[in-house]
Amino acid sequence: MSYAIVGFGKIGQALAHAFARKNINVAVASRRPPEALAPQAEAIGPTVVAMSLREALEADTIFLAVPFGEHREVAKALPNWKGKTVIDATNALVPPEELDGLPSSAFVAKAFAGARFVKGFNHLIAATLAADPVVEGGHRVVFLSSDDEDAVAPVAALAKQLGFAPVKLGKLNEGGALVHARGRVWGQLIFQDLFKKEQ
Question: Most buried in the list 9, 96, 131, 147, measured by CB within 10 Å?
């Protein structure tokens, strides 16, 4: 399984730290050329490799960590997203009427036709997401939701591999609604820093 993070701002870098901590290879890409990202990527760890967007999108699993309004540009980079898993870590700071009455993730998913689409890793602020998720005998929780049940299991397994405790919240219009930002109104679980104790 290969991984990429598209978007290398605060959230993209926080995710890269999570991969580096576990020595898992991950490509990082943004609108900037890879040579502009390389010094920061190398500073995070040797398993974090800056690539062009085209190269990064060859990965099996892609974290979407761009500003919400840029998701369509990323989606246009591939003619077909079949066979790809897209993990939506964005938050929509836009008026709800701009989302056609949909949860933000369902709105974003429309642009990635054919992809297995999972909402996740979006409810923690960057500094928290970048920190070691193993805290006081427990694991920091990440929420996952998807309309494709089969897509959630491998993302949950990746979350565990990265040291997080995945909690499945159901479909995008159910669980997704709990963690997506609607304009400036926050979902009930967004920015909640929760822990799951070892069993």
Answer: 147
Q: Name the one residue in this structure whose structure tokens are 């919400």.
A: 68
Domains in the chain (CATH in brackets) are: 3-197 (3.40.50.720)
pLDDT tens, per residue, the chain with 199 residues: 999 999 999 999 999 999 999 999 999 999 999 999 999 999 999 999 999 999 999 999 999 999 988 999 999 999 999 999 999 999 877 666 777 777 788 889 999 999 999 999 988 889 989 999 988 778 888 989 999 989 999 999 999 999 999 999 888 876 545 555 544 444 444 555 544 555 4
Residue 106 DSSP symbol: H
CB neighbour list of residue 46: distance below 8 Å, 6 or more residues apart: 20
